[in-house]
């Protein structure tokens, strides 16, 4: 391939810019032309496409968000939307596409693959919910953002002897809550992938108070329920002076960590290698610290992401 394009889609994630930079510069190094597609699949269908050169991706590796912007575009799930997208790619002479994003973005790349257009998926989502990769771009930064907030919340929780329910993003996955909860010394972690008993949560808070504990931190994944609903249900078991902190979209922002910048650079360079060799229909991942490529159809249709539930068990054992 001599001409490829990049788009970012779905929720933004710290490190996306590092991936855009890596794809662009590696492709130019290999003698290829690179085009950037603004606003994801919506921009693809609209033809919002521009050529990228080395200066266009300078000074972006440290920036959060995405310089190619992002947008939701459910219409790309239709045949009409997909055919319009391929028409635009052909119009610009683009032979392969790198799609950086999460589950929804991957399904867009999958649709192109099924229609014979070579696409490669790079996992870019704070949720860490993509199958066949241990980590996604943005996850490490996100959990460190949550951890920083937890450390601050603990100060005020201790001052007022309160229980804080910290609601974090993650869509239907509990990875952010799980990793940040363990790192932040949470008293309880509530995630979609593991059942919980509110009566046991309440009893654990009581036992901590009986020992003289001055605070209680509960990290709640948004995929279970809202923080305010959780607080209302907890109140049925007693008055625990509970407060709710919804971290929301702040978890998506900020400069990417070193780990996310390196991971994104590795993914971007590998994506170019695949397309240069004429390989499409693949999604990239990191498994046991090795960069791998898997068939995107098989990955999305037959695999499901699973969190490391050993972390859940560990937190239960050490958080009393």
From TrEMBL:
Residues 3-275 form the Phosphofructokinase domain. The keyword Kinase applies. Keywords: Allosteric enzyme, ATP-binding, Cytoplasm, Glycolysis, Kinase, Magnesium, Metal-binding, Nucleotide-binding, Transferase. Pathway: Carbohydrate degradation; glycolysis; D-glyceraldehyde 3-phosphate and glycerone phosphate from D-glucose: step 3/4. Mg(2+) binds at residue 103. Allosterically activated by ADP and other diphosphonucleosides, and allosterically inhibited by phosphoenolpyruvate. Substrate binds at residues 125-127, 162, 169-171, 222, 243, 249-252. InterPro entries: ATP_PFK, ATP_PFK_prok-type, PFKA_ATP_prok, Phosphofructokinase_dom, PKF_sf. GO terms for cellular component: 6-phosphofructokinase complex. Its EC number is 2.7.1.11. Homotetramer. Belongs to the phosphofructokinase type A (PFKA) family. ATP-dependent PFK group I subfamily. Prokaryotic clade 'B1' sub-subfamily. Catalyzes the phosphorylation of D-fructose 6-phosphate to fructose 1,6-bisphosphate by ATP, the first committing step of glycolysis. This is ATP-dependent 6-phosphofructokinase. It comes from Vagococcus teuberi. The lineage of its organism: Bacteria, Bacillati, Bacillota, Bacilli, Lactobacillales.
């Amino acid at each position: 391939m001599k001409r490829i394009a990049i788009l970012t889609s779905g929720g933004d994630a710290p490190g996306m810019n590092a991936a855009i930079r890596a794809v662009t510069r590696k492709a130019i190094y290999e003698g290829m032309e690179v085009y950037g597609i603004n606003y994801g699949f919506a921009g693809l269908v609209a033809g919002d496409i521009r050529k990228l050169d080395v200066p266009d991706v300078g000074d972006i590796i440290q920036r959060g968000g995405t310089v190619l912007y992002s947008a939701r575009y459910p219409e790309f799930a239709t045949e009409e939307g997909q055919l319009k997208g391929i028409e635009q790619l052909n119009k610009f002479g683009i032979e392969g596409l790198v799609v950086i994003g999460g589950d929804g973005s991957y399904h867009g790349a999958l649709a192109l693959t099924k229609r014979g257009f070579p696409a490669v998926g790079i996992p870019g989502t704070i949720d860490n919910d993509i199958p066949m990769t241990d980590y996604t771009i943005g996850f490490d930064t996100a959990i460190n953002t949550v951890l920083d907030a937890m450390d601050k919340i603990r100060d005020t929780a201790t001052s007022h002897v309160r229980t804080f329910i910290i609601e974090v993003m993650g869509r239907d996955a509990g990875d952010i809550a799980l990793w940040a909860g363990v790192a932040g010394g949470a008293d309880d972690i509530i995630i979609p992938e593991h059942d919980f008993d509110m009566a046991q949560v309440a009893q654990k808070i009581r036992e901590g108070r009986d020992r003289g504990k001055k605070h209680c931190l509960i990290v709640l994944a948004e995929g279970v329920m809202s923080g305010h609903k959780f607080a209302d249900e907890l109140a049925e078991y007693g008055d625990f002076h509970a407060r709710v902190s919804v971290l929301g979209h702040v978890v998506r922002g900020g400069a990417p960590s070193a780990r996310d910048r390196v991971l994104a650079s590795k993914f971007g360079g590998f994506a170019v290698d695949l397309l240069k060799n004429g390989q499409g229909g693949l999604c990239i991942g990191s498994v046991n610290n090795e960069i791998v490529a898997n068939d995107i159809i098989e990955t999305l249709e037959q695999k499901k992401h699973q969190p490391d539930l050993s972390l859940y068990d560990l937190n239960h054992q050490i958080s009393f």
